[in-house]
Amino acid sequence: MRTSAPLLAALMLFGCCLRPGTAMADEAASPPQCHDLAARYFARDHGAGIERNDYVDPDTRKTLYDETRSTFRDYYRAPRKQCFVVISIENTTRLDAARNRAVWVIAIELNANRSAGLFHQTNDSADICFVGDRDCRSRAEWDSLLQPYLHD
C-alpha cells in the first residue's frame, strides 16, 4: 500500500530521515533521556501540538475550519538502547456540512534517525500503511506490526 508521492509528502511533513547528520545515538541511553529526546524532536516540528488555520472566504463569508492536533509517545528498548517516538497527527477540516479527517502516524527510531513505520488514513480509508518492510491495511494491523519495535 505504499504510494510514492504521498509517502514523500509524509516524510517531508514529519521531517523524518531528510536531515542528514541528525542521528542521536548517544543521547538516549536511558528512559528519561529517551523521553527528553522525543519531546525535543516533537517540539521542533509540532510545537504545542495544536494548530488552527481557519479561513474566511471574503466573497462568500463562509468559514473553512481547520485544526491539527499532534501528540507523541516515546518508547525505550533497554537491551538495544533504542529510542523510538510515535507521532500522531489528526487534521480536521469543516465547511458547512462537509467534514474531512486525516490521520498520520509515524514511528521514528531516533537513534538512527529513520522511519520504522508510517500510517495514513483519510476519513475511513487507509492509503499508506507499513512497518519496516511489511505492508498493512488498517490501523489495528499497523499497531500490531509496530509492537515488536517498541517492546522487548
Share in helix? 25-40%
Termini separation comes to: 27 Å
Shape: flat
What portion of residues belong to β-strands?
Answer: 35-45%
What value does the Rg take, in angstroms?
17 Å
Main pleated sheet: 8 strands, antiparallel
Q: How many β-strands, per DSSP?
A: 8
Tally the helices. 3
Q: Tell me the structural class.
A: alpha+beta
Uncertain runs: 2-23
Written as H for each helix and E for each strand, in order along the chain, the element string is HHEEEEEEEEH
Q: What number is the mean pLDDT? A: 84
Fold and architecture overview:
The chain has 152 residues and is α+β, with helices and mostly antiparallel strands. The chain has 3 helices and 8 strands. Strands 1, 2, 3, 4, 5, 6, 7 and 8 form an 8-stranded antiparallel sheet that branches. A hairpin with a 2-residue loop joins strand 6 and strand 7 (125-131). The two termini are 27 Å apart.
Quick tags:
152 residues, alpha+beta, eight-stranded antiparallel sheet, 3 helices, 26% helix, flat, disordered N terminus
